[in-house]
Structure formats: C-alpha cells, structure tokens
Amino acid sequence: HVEWDQGPDQPPRWPLEGDAMTNISEPIRFCFDERKATAAAALLLELAGGTMEYLCLIKLLYFADRDAIDAFGHPITGDRYVAMKHGPVLSQTYNLVKRAVFTKLTTGTVWDEHIEGAGRYRLRLKKHPGVGVLSQAEIDVLMEVFQRYRTRDTWSLRDETHALPEWDDPGDSAVEIRVEEILQVLGKGEAEVAAVRQHAREEAHFNRLFDR
Q1: Gap between the Cα atoms of 106 and 145, Å rounded
Q2: What sections of the chain are H helices per DSSP?
Q3: Is the pLDDT of residue 20 over 50?
Q4: The whole model's pTM is what?
Q5: Residue range 128-150: average pLDDT?
Q6: Given 76, 91, 150, 206, which residue has the most CB atoms within 10 angstroms?
Q7: For residues 199 and 203, what is the distance between their CA atoms, to the nearest angstrom?
Q8: CA dihedral for 11, 194, 61, 96, sign (positive or negative)
Q9: How far apart are CA 207 and CA 188, in angstroms?
C-alpha cells in the first residue's frame, strides 16, 4: 500500500506492468531545486528570528527532507545526502552555505540573493523570497520540524542525527546516503521504493524536456 496520497507535487504512482524492475539498481536521484532549498532555508531562518548557526540549519533541512520523504515519497529540496563526521548533510545546499559563510563570494544565485553569512558560523536572512514555490504540505513539514527542535542547540541536533540509522561515521571523508537507505529505515516496502524511483525518473525526464 502506497500511503503518499497527498503531497507537494504529483504523488508517486505504482510502476506500470513490466517496468517495476526497470533500472532497479539505478540509484534514486531527485532534481535539486535551489529555489525550494532557498525558500525552505529562509522560512526556517525567519522562524528563528532571522539568523541561525549554519550547522543547525543544515540539520533542520535534513530532518524536513527526511520527513517529506516519509510522508510524500518526495523530498522538499531534491538534494543529495552525504554522511559527514557531524552527521547527514544536504550536499549542494551545504556548498551554498559554505560559500556564503566562508568565502563571502556572491554569484547572483537565488540563494545568494536571499541568504548571507553572518559571522564565521552563522547565516542571516537578507530578504525573504516568499514560499510560493513550496506547497502547503511542505510548509507544514518545515514548521513542524522547527517546532520540534526549536529549543535544541546545534550540538544536540548533531548528536540526534548521529543516532539516525542511515548515518555511519565516515571519519574525515564523506559517504553518500542513498534515498533507498532512508526509505528502508523508514520501513517502506519494495513497491513503495519502486514507486519513488519511478517518480524521480519521471521528474528528471520532465526537467530534461523543459531544460530545467
């Protein structure tokens, strides 16, 4: 039974007869959406009063994507996940964060337009982009995640992500956390994983068609 009957975009569909096992070894890859990552980060920063330690923000975004995968079969940001020594990280979002915090370089991206570094370890909301690119379901997930962890400091959040079953300590390296691993620890069955894989493939195909 696929439970994702309501969600931010089109819900995962059952694989068609004959294609359920197609490319079964192909990793599930969603398409990173910088606009949605920026809107999600901006919402969390706004709820926190406009500024936050970057590690804390990365953890909240990971929890939000994880909860969205659990509820809808689709993340909010579409980012790739890697295990690092301080826990799971959203790979491309982390690159945007590092540039804002450590290099101060701006390249005119959506993220740079709205979020900036504020000291060595903090981010600040420059201008809210609005939440028009997010569905109400995604906004609800983000707000629930913020309320759940709003009294926690950065290091207790880090420790909580260390307890997630999909994370293994990679030392000083970085190891990919596949979406399949997240689905498995969330208790999703083979049909549900196949539906998520099919949905990700269809999204990638759509983006190629429209050069997104």
Answers
A1: 29
A2: 34-47, 54-72, 91-98, 110-114, 136-149, 154-162, 179-185, 190-209
A3: no
A4: 0.86
A5: 97
A6: 76
A7: 6
A8: negative
A9: 26
Q: Report pLDDT for 1.
A: 36
Handedness of CA 44, 59, 52, 97 (dihedral sign): negative
The two three-digit tokens of residue 21, written as one number:
């096992």
Q: What is the pLDDT of residue 120?
A: 82
For 19, phi then psi, to 5°, come to -115, 5
Which residues have C-beta within 8 Å of that of residue 120, sequence separation ≥ 6? 101, 102
Task: Map tokens 């990280």 to a residue.
Answer: 89
Residue 207 to residue 32: CA distance in whole angstroms: 11
Residue-wise DSSP of 131-146: STTS-HHHHHHHHHHH
pLDDT of residue 211: 64
* The predicted structure's pLDDT at residue 24: 55
Tokens of 109: 């991206």
pLDDT (tens digit per residue) in 21-38: 444 568 899 999 999 999
Quick one: CA torsion of 200, 137, 141, 72, rounded to 10 degrees? -30
CA torsion sign for 93, 94, 100, 105 is negative
